[in-house]
User: Fold this.
Amino acid sequence: QVQLVESGGGLVQAGGSLRLSCAASGRFFSINTMGWYRQAPGKQRELVAAITSTGNTDYAESVKGRFTISRDNAKNTVYLQMNSLKPEDTAVYYCHLGWGINNFWGQGTQVTVSS
Assistant:
């Protein structure tokens, strides 16, 4: 079974930065996509950023230029560097790992940005 363990969430003032980390363990295909989704109260879960095992990235328009996703394949870890945070970035952030029809989720980490 695949396990995803997230860390790095917290409370930060607008304009500040946070770095999320997600470490994957277990058995999974080496060719995969890891990413971050978020869900704010009353809203649907949305993609924030994703990165393939070959380094191709995708970002939500709302975070382009502020967030950077990266991964360390040797450590099976994905990172999300979040700069210039805004109150509307407040949400629970979920780590995702997928390949083919397989999808795995972390437990979520709260990010709160105060104005």
Observations:
- The two ends are 40 Å apart (CA to CA).
